[in-house]
Amino acid sequence: DAGVTQSPTHLIKTRGQQVTLRCSPKSGHDTVSWYQQALGQGPQFIFQYYEEEERQRGNFPDRFSGHQFPNYSSELNVNALLLGDSALYLCASSLGQGTGNTIYFGEGSWLTVV
Amino acid sequence: QKEVEQNSGPLSVPEGAIASLNCTYSDRVSQSFFWYRQYSGKSPELIMSIYSNGDKEDGRFTAQLNKASQYVSLLIRDSQPSDSATYLCAVGTPPTDSWGKLQFGAGTQVVVTP
Fold this sequence. Notes:
The structure holds two protein chains of two kinds. Chain A has no helices and eleven strands. By secondary structure, chain A is mainly β.
């Protein structure tokens, strides 16, 4: 049973550049959420995609955008990178919509902005 | 006021002893509660979920929930060196939890000493 897979695992970008991170949900899951985890902090919700639409967004600027494809995989795009965007980016998948859904994280993508 | 609060630690626990981790949350309508374990440099891994007041046991782990006090805890019995990690408390609050949004605490670092 394939878990949540993310790519790339590590990357280094320069301030002002753009980055795209990719995620494939756990087999059978159709919903993808993205989280940002800064060093020493808990994960912070960025947004969630279901049925190829952004359903909810956390407190992140428009520089953060995403997409979900018909096969449920998803991309996170960050434009005009800032030093403060350096973090572990986590993709989480779940099945459908409903209170109390359990989310499962991928291994994450470590982004360093220099 | 932070929505989900945990003691940052580190919590030092002798091998074989019980580790007790605490978490408080601010929103009275929160309905779902999760404990994730995160090893250094890795992504969070789900340990336990709890939705009703009382205790829930799974192997060496016991989650306790008291909604009146807005308090959830995790007990780790017979602590092993492999339990050394950061433990994240996560809370789901309707309706946003149906969109995959969980509020995380900053985590408690546990160090099990031989």
